[in-house]
């Protein structure tokens, strides 16, 4: 019988010197604890847990921040997208063009309305929707004649706004409405235009790890269009107007709750400082890693909200394992393009050519980037990435 021998244990030698998590929500929470506590205490005092005064206060602050005429607080980013589409009257038989390389909620929101997501490839440099491939996809849908092209929904991946100028031009030529999936990019801008004002209607997410994240689910819809904003306000509360009983249209239970608004009001006060800290980290990564790996490429005039700092690397999975061994947390956003998800099989014909999305799904790797990251942690990440590649 073979004698089992214990593997040599030398934790002191093999354990990484420091562990850098991909996200650490605790640090910011500790920094803002007293102020958030005060805000939450006020909510406990008035007990208006739904449509409390904090919701309206936040909506006005969000409007001021991004310059949109209307901000409507809602229950999540996905619900924000669904309600934007519902307000536009999108439904069965309609085609909504989405990038193939994004989070599943982008296409999931489309399917939830009964409309069909149509997948469009992304650009090699920005990883955002390719205007040229959008043109191709619209042409194909029109030629088949089964769906009515209605909406294009670009995504601002990792915090960088999509190319709304080029996509808007294609959309206008084909009479499509642009709905921005800005779930990852609130706080970002193009020139002097902030995210929230890039499209006829925009949606963002306040999921905890987003640039402006709450302590649970939340989101917002932005628009300059009074009618669309009023429609979203109706939809988020069962299609009812104020305290009226009658459902004026089909709606949802999709309000931003008062507790989340209270947390977000404090976080919004800190937002510019936190964004500046993320931008500084991105600049350091850029300077140190350019030439070592493919670092993010931002189009002219763009300020990213840096939801994620994402590299493109060969042998991604091996690099990721080496970083994990060295105590560096990383993330894969996203390892599967949408046309390969089981849920979207009904919308896939099988002859899709989305080569950039398919390659990116194999190559991308996101590094830690959050405001409270320490300089020694940034240095550790950089040193270990250099080693790992
Ligand atoms: C691109 C994109 N769209 C939509 C969503 C959905 O947002 P939420 O998680 O708030 O529903 C997310 C969030 O993860 C996202 O990253």
Q: What oligomeric arrangement do these chains adopt? A: single chain
- Please name the fourth-level CATH homologous superfamily of the largest domain: Type I PLP-dependent aspartate aminotransferase-like (Major domain)
Highest CATH level, the class of the largest domain: Alpha Beta
Number of strands: 12
Uncertain runs are 1-12
Describe the 3D structure.
The chain is built from twelve helices and twelve strands. Helix 4 (77-87) packs across helix 5, helix 4 crosses helix 8 and helix 10 (316-325) crosses helix 12 (375-388). The model is unreliable at 1-12 (pLDDT under 50). The strands form three sheets. It has a seven-stranded mixed sheet with strand order 1-9-8-5-4-2-3, sandwiched between helices. A three-stranded antiparallel sheet has the order 7-6-10, with no helix packed on it. A two-stranded antiparallel sheet has the order 11-12. Strand 2 (94-99), helix 5 (104-112) and strand 3 (116-120) form a beta-alpha-beta unit. It is an alpha/beta fold and 389 residues long. The protein folds into two domains: 29-120 and 127-267, Type I PLP-dependent aspartate aminotransferase-like (Major domain) (Aspartate Aminotransferase, domain 2), CATH 3.40.640; 271-388, Aspartate Aminotransferase, domain 1, CATH 3.90.1150.10. Helix content is 41%, strand content 13%. Pyridoxal-5'-phosphate is lined by residues 76-78, 102-103, 105-106, 155, 181, 183-184, 205, 207, 217, 219.
């Amino acid at each position: 019988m073979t004698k089992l021998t214990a593997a040599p244990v030398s934790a002191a030698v093999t354990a990484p010197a420091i562990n850098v998590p991909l996200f650490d929500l605790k640090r910011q929470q500790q920094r803002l604890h007293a102020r958030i506590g005060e805000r939450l205490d006020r909510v406990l005092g008035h007990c208006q847990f739904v449509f409390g005064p904090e919701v309206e206060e936040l909506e006005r602050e969000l409007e001021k921040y991004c310059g949109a005429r209307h901000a409507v607080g809602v229950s999540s980013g996905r619900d924000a997208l669904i309600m934007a589409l519902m307000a536009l009257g999108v439904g069965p038989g309609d085609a909504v063009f989405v990038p193939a390389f994004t989070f599943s909620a982008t296409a999931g929101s489309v399917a939830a309305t009964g409309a069909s997501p149509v997948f469009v490839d992304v650009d090699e440099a920005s990883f955002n929707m390719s205007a040229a491939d959008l043109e191709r996809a619209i042409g194909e849908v029109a030629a088949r004649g089964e769906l009515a092209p209605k909406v294009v929904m670009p995504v601002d991946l990792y915090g960088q706004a999509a190319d709304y100028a080029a996509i808007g031009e294609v959309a206008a030529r084909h009479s499509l409405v642009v709905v921005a999936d800005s779930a990852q990019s609130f706080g970002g801008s193009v020139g002097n235009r902030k995210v929230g004002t890039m499209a006829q209607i925009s949606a963002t997410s306040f999921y905890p790890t987003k640039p402006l994240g709450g302590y649970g689910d939340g989101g917002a819809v932005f628009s300059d269009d009074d009618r669309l904003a009023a429609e979203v306000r109706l939809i988020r509360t069962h299609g009812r107007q104020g305290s009226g009983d009658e459902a004026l249209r089909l709606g949802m239970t999709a309000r931003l709750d008062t507790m989340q608004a209270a947390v977000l009001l404090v976080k919004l006060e800190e937002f510019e400082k936190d964004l500046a800290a993320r931008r500084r980290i991105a600049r350091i990564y850029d300077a140190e890693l350019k030439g070592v790996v493919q670092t993010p490429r931002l189009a002219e005039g763009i300020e990213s909200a840096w939801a994620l700092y994402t590299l493109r690397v060969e042998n991604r999975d091996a690099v990721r394992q080496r970083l994990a061994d060295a105590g560096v947390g990383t993330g894969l956003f996203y390892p599967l393009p949408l046309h390969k998800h089981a849920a979207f099989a009904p919308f896939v014909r099988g002859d899709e050519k989305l080569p950039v999305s398919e390659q990116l799904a194999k190559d991308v790797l996101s590094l830690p980037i959050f405001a409270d990251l320490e300089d020694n942690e940034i240095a550790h990440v950089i040193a270990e990435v250099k080693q790992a590649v």
